[in-house]
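Good morning C.,

I know you're traveling, so I'll keep this short. The sequence:
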Amino acid sequence: MKLENQVCTLDQSKRLKELGVIQESFLYHIPGVFIPATLSAKQKIIFNQHWSAFTVAELGIMLPKRLKASWKHGDTTGLGGEWQSSCNCSIEYRFDVKKNAFIACYPLVASYSHPKEATARAGLLIELLERKLITAEQVNENLKVA
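The tokens, ready to paste straight into the viewer:
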């Protein structure tokens, strides 16, 4: 399997950096380099523009194993008022043969699919961060503990 198929995309890497995810990974996207590369501390200084190319394994560590979420619903009864749902669900990974895509999801909360597993996992992570269902601090702590 090609290395670039095992890491998140450059756009996803940039977005994760914008969302506050620390830039410490095994591989990095570097401008002008078409495949992810490892970087030493000295090279990180030379290539001041670099983004973590998180692997499937790193993304699995970053995503929480369980997610608590709640959301409000508008009036669906015609009687006025709102109601609230909540769940405490586990992450699921699967491959949809019909769609030829990997799916990373928390049922009823968020889901992302893509032919590349790392892209699916990164997409889910970005969605959770953007919707403020998890924080960059939580993600960073998961990475530090691993």
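Safe travels,
E.
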